[in-house]
């Protein structure tokens, strides 16, 4: 299992590093991807929304199905920095054991389409995840294990890239994030963006001059 998790983390870090938004549509925030195009879960069956509990109507984060019981997500979707101790700690709803990964649906609230909730039973995050002034600056990656396997009609394991990118390529970023940069409310319907995927070297260089 450790080898499996390490392989997923290695692939994720090599291929994603930082995604740079396509210049086709600009956001007022350079570090946040917002709005996008309307999508369907049939086109992104690997996507799940992370919900505080079964009754939640909006996702607080997103993730990708990488195995029958595992979701790849961001580290900041799992932990936060304690303002007093300076140490990382799991978000409260993980302690309460109410977090679910909701899949099989275009609409995260579940309207007009059946959704499937999968209870999160274990979480892992990078042991060198670094948060500075409220922002994650390094190793923002985490894994979630769910109790119920991903067997829904529109629940599929994502095809992960196995080799690092040497040239700039275009990828797709999907989820239920904000539509407007100044309104902290996520979308109900699935959205997607075209983004640039950089090699780690080009990513670091781009971040230095952005």
Automatic annotation (TrEMBL):
InterPro entries: Peptidase_S1, Peptidase_S1_PA, Peptidase_S1_PA_chymotrypsin, Peptidase_S1A, Trypsin_dom, TRYPSIN_HIS
Gene3D superfamilies (alphabetical): Trypsin-like serine proteases
Signal sequence residues: 1-19
GO BP terms: proteolysis
PROSITE patterns in the cross-refs: TRYPSIN_DOM, TRYPSIN_HIS
Domain annotation Peptidase S1: ranges: 33-210
Keyword Transmembrane helix annotated: no
Domain of life: Eukaryota
Name of the protein this chain belongs to: Peptidase S1 domain-containing protein
């Amino acid at each position: 299992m450790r080898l499996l998790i390490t392989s997923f983390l290695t692939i994720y870090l090599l291929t994603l590093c930082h995604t740079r938004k396509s210049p086709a549509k600009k956001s007022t925030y350079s570090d946040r991807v917002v709005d996008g195009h309307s999508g369907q879960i049939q086109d992104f069956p690997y996507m799940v929304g992370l919900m505080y509990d079964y009754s939640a109507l909006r996702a607080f984060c997103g993730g990708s199905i990488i195995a029958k019981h595992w979701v790849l997500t961001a580290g900041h979707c799992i932990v936060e920095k304690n303002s007093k101790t300076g140490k990382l700690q799991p978000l409260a709803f993980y302690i309460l054991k109410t977090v679910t990964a909701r899949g099989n649906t275009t609409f995260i609230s579940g309207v007009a389409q059946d959704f499937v909730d999968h209870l999160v039973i274990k979480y892992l995050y990078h042991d060198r995840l670094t948060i500075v002034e409220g922002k994650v600056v390094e190793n923002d990656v985490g894994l979630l294990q769910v109790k119920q396997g991903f067997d829904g009609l529109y629940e599929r394991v994502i095809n992960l890239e196995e080799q690092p990118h040497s040239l700039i390529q275009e990828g797709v970023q999907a989820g239920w994030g904000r539509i407007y940069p100044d309104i902290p409310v996520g979308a109900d319907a699935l959205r997607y963006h075209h983004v640039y995927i950089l090699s780690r070297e080009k990513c670091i260089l781009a971040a230095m001059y952005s």
